[in-house]
Amino acid sequence: MNLTRALAVLLVAAGTGLSATRRLLPGDPDHGRELFRSQNCVACHSFGGPAGGVGPDLAGVVARGFTPAQLAASMWNHAPWMWAAMKRRGVAQPELSEQQAADLFAFFFAARSFEKPGQRRQGEEVFRSKRCAACHGPDTAPGSGIPPVSSWAPLPDPVALAQRMWNHPRSGLVSPRIAPRQLTDLLSYVRGLQGQRTGPRTFSPGSAETGKMLLEAKGCKVCHDATRPLETRSARYGATDLAAALWNHVPRLPDSTPPVSYQEMRDLVAYLSSAQFLEERGDMERGKTVFAKKRCGTCHENLSSGAPNLAAVSGKMTSFDMVAAVWKHGPGMWHRMQERRVAWPRFRDSEMADLTAYLHGVEFRQRSAAVK
């Protein structure tokens, strides 16, 4: 086994269990946003906007720790009720592919509401303590050629604020470091000065495909090469976290750094959000226990059931595969389970990660990246 394959499989002893790392298809938030509409999700759900009124607003459900396993578990747990609601409303059931599941996840993760609405009073303190007021007056210009904050172009989200800082003239600039929460508060203060609504907002992500190309075009790869890639960092960053990181990166930028438009910044954030989820890990031994506890073998170890056995899915199972399976095969599974009087199982996020690891096995399937 070569080194690449060994690192990819990463069989780690954990008590009596084995942990298997599986490569995930990278998703594109822009494609996911279109899927949310074209697959009729909007018939029942909203994402920070008007909804059909049956299902919850998913922007309030997607939290900071959102993972592919959580998406798979949530869809699995609610599937029978969703199918029933769709039947009552005459909504056609979608059939999702693994790639489409990855795109939807990327959209949900990147576009979730910024964790909490910013606090204008705290934002005013950030404005003062970070010495923004030394150059930028709230309502009046303290210096020639420097417009007051109240006259700035509208700022829809923290990504826009980071983009303005990125393009700020570097001569004599002392860029203060800022935490994600401070950035949200600062945005609330600035938007208040501009007479804009300061409540919670949903970020509209750009194209991950374009964002990846921009990393090259904007010279980011000069520093973030194979020795310091952005894609393999273990932390999970939301849009606000990424915006703060981009803000804090400004002092290290050379004067020759090209400007970035708001759309380009959205595309970069879309790619960086998606690139954080290139693999997932689960414990196969615990997954075997979940398989038995949830009575999956009633069908998947019974040839007469028509369900695929474990050999058929070996090396082919991730959380995105599980999402696709629910929508492609779930209604038929539910019908057969009702005939056998088997209850539809529910899974915790960790159980879904372990179950898919067990179903996948130790075989590693090399992926060709969808984002080129």
Describe the structure.
With 372 residues, the protein is mainly α. The protein has 2 domains: 3-113 and 278-360, no CATH class; 120-201 and 219-257, no CATH class. It contains 15 helices and 3 strands. Helix 6 (158-166) packs across helix 10. The longest helix has 22 residues, at 68-89. The chain has helices at residues 3-9, 29-38, 68-89, 98-111, 120-129, 158-166, 180-193, 208-217, 239-249, 262-275, 284-293, 297-300, 310-313, 319-339, 349-360; strands at residues 12-14, 17-23, 279-283. A 3-stranded antiparallel β-sheet has the order 1-2-3.
Quickly list its features.
372 residues; mainly alpha; 2 domains; 3-stranded antiparallel sheet; 15 helices; elongated
What structural class results from the helix and strand content?
mainly alpha
Unreliable runs: 1-16, 363-372
- Give the radius of gyration: 23 Å
Globular, elongated, flat, extended or rod-shaped: what is the shape?
elongated
**Helical residue percent band:** 40-55%
Question: How are strands sequenced across the largest beta sheet?
Answer: 1-2-3
Number of helices: 15
Strand elements, count: 3
> Biggest sheet, open or closed, and with what strands and sense?
3 strands, antiparallel
Spell out the helices and strands N to C: HEEHHHHHHHHHEHHHHH
Strand content: under 5%
Question: How many distinct domains?
Answer: 2
Query: What's the overall average pLDDT, rounded?
Result: 80
